[in-house]
C-alpha cells in the first residue's frame, strides 16, 4: 500500500512515519507540506492512500480534495475534532486526532486494505475470480446484472443516466430505481464507453445521452440538467474537458 503524507508540520509527519514503520505492507512514497506540493506529488506518485491534515498554509485539506477529479483513499489527521462529519461527507476512510494512536491507525489501515481489495476485483458487479484478465469495455447497448440486497435487475447501460458515490458504494440511477453496488467510480469509468459516459466530478459519472440542458455555473464551470433527474455540477477541470469533447 503506497502512502503519501500531507502535513505542514515536519514533526507531525515524522511521528506518523515512525508509527507506520510497524506496518510492513505500508510504503511511504512521499511527503508534502501544503496542498500545492501535494497536488504535484499525487499526480506523479499516484499513491493508494493519502494521510491528510486539514489546516495548512494556503489551501485546507478539504479545498485540496475539491480540486481533484480523482483522489486516492483519504485518512484525515488533525488536531481538531469539529470537522469529523464533513470528513465523512467527502468519503474519508477515517478521521484520526493528533497525537495519532497506534490502535486507531491500525484500524484505519485495515479499512484501507479492505477498500483496495474490493477495487482489485475486475468485475462490474458480483463476485468472480480475480486471476482472469480485465474484462473488455462495455457499450451502451450492453446489459448488466445489478443486485442490491434481495432485488435484482438486468439493465441496459444506455438506460442508466447517472452513477453517483453514496458512502462506500456507488448508486445507479435508472427508471425509478436507485440500487447500490460495491464498486468505485474509477472501476466503472474504466469499463464504460467514454463516448457515452462522462466523469463530471469526483462523485458522479453521467450518461451524455440523458442531458436535458447545460448552463454556465460558478468559476467557469458548468451545471448539467439530466432528463427526469438531478442537476450535476461539473468540476472546473472536467468543464474544460466537456467543452473540448462536445465542441465542433
Explain what the structure shows.
Residues 2-113 form the Response regulatory domain. The modification 4-aspartylphosphate is found at residue 53. Pfam families: LytTR, Response_reg. Helices cover 28% and strands 29% of the residues. The protein starts with a strand and ends with a helix. It contains seven helices and 15 strands. It has a five-stranded parallel beta sheet, sandwiched between helices. It has a five-stranded antiparallel beta sheet with strand order 10-9-8-12-11, with no helix packed on it. It has helices at 10-20, 35-45, 61-66, 84-89, 102-119, 185-191, 236-246, and strands at 2-6, 27-32, 49-52, 73-78, 94-97, 143-148, 151-156, 162-166, 169-173, 180-181, 197-199, 204-207, 211-216, 222-226, 231-234. It is α/β, with parallel strands linked by helices and 248 residues long. It has two domains: 2-119, Rossmann fold, CATH 3.40.50.2300; 143-246, LytTr DNA-binding domain (OB fold (Dihydrolipoamide Acetyltransferase, E2P)).
| Shape assignment | globular
Strand percentage: 25-35%
How large is the count of helical segments? 7
> What count of domains describes the coordinates?
2
Instruction: Kindly report the CATH topology of the largest domain.
Output: Rossmann fold
Instruction: Give me the Rg, rounded.
Output: 19 Å
Structural class of the helix and strand makeup?
A: alpha/beta
Q: CATH class of the largest domain, anyone? A: Alpha Beta
Helical proportion, percent range: 25-40%
CATH A-level architecture of the largest domain: 3-Layer(aba) Sandwich
From the N-terminal CA to the C-terminal CA, the straight-line distance is 43 Å
Query: What sequence of helices (H) and strands (E) makes up the elements?
Result: EHEHEHEHEHEEEEEHEEEEEH
Assembly state here?
single chain
Largest sheet: 5 strands, parallel
Strand order in the largest sheet: 2-1-3-4-5
Mean of pLDDT: 87
The name of the CATH superfamily of the largest domain reads: Response regulator
> Which stretches are poorly predicted, pLDDT < 50 over at least 5 residues?
126-134
Question: How many individual β-strands?
Answer: 15
